[in-house]
């Protein structure tokens, strides 16, 4: 028996070729199909442009170039906006994507400074924002009140100022 491993995007697929002599063509076809499947997943997993723009605004407003870990955000050949490839947002440190929408921002203990932009309201499917133990200052954006899927926000141990926006009272999942 011959075992073949195909690795792409940290996922390994194993193909066992029982009859190597007569099935080598089949093995090549299977490898090609797996490769096409893996690549098609990467190419179609793009978040809306408004969410990408909001991630970039968030990065810039919180001094992302100086975060403790900003891996993935500017890796590889940059797009015109200066950030990693469109569709790669799920590989950006602290960002989780599910069904082509940003669902989590988890950047606690990461050296964020600056303030949160109102653009954060673009994450319409987000359920969790954890930014505790950073040095974010300024007001809490009122746009958070429009994120009806939110079931967890943790902004503790930051330097926010001003009142808590009344719009947060509309978030019934918290």
Number of H- or I-type helical stretches = 2
* Helical content band: 10-25%
**Which class do the helix and strand fractions yield?**
alpha/beta
* Shape assignment: globular
Strand order of the largest sheet: 3-4-6-8
Pick out the low-confidence regions: 2-10, 17-22, 37-44
Radius of gyration based on Cα positions:
21 Å
Largest sheet: 4 strands, mixed
Summed over residues and divided by their number, the pLDDT gives a mean of 85
Strand content: 15-25%
Q: Got a strand count?
A: 9
Order of helices and strands: EEHHEEEEEEE
In whole angstroms, the N-to-C terminal distance is 54 Å
Characterise this structure.
The chain has 174 residues and is an alpha/beta fold. 22% of the residues lie in helices and 22% in strands. The strands form three sheets. A four-stranded mixed sheet has the order 3-4-6-8, with no helix packed on it. The chain is globular and about 55 Å long. It starts with a strand and ends in a 14-residue tail after the last strand. The relative contact order is 0.12. The N terminus is likely disordered.
């Amino acid at each position: 028996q011959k075992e073949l491993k195909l690795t792409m995007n940290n996922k390994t697929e194993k193909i066992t070729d029982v009859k190597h002599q007569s099935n080598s063509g089949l093995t090549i076809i299977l490898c090609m199909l797996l490769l096409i499947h893996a690549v098609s997943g990467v190419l179609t997993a793009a978040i809306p442009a408004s969410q990408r723009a909001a991630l970039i605004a968030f990065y810039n407003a919180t001094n992302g170039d100086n975060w403790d870990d900003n891996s993935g955000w500017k890796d590889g050949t940059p797009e015109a906006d200066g950030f990693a490839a469109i569709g790669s947002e799920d590989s950006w440190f602290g960002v989780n994507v599910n069904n082509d929408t940003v669902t989590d921002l988890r950047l606690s203990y990461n050296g964020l400074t600056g303030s949160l932009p109102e653009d954060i309201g673009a994450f319409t499917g987000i359920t969790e924002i954890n930014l505790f133990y950073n040095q974010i200052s300024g007001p809490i954006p009122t746009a958070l009140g429009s994120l009806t899927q939110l079931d967890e926000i943790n902004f503790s141990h930051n330097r926010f100022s001003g009142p808590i926006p009344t719009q947060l009272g509309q978030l019934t999942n918290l």
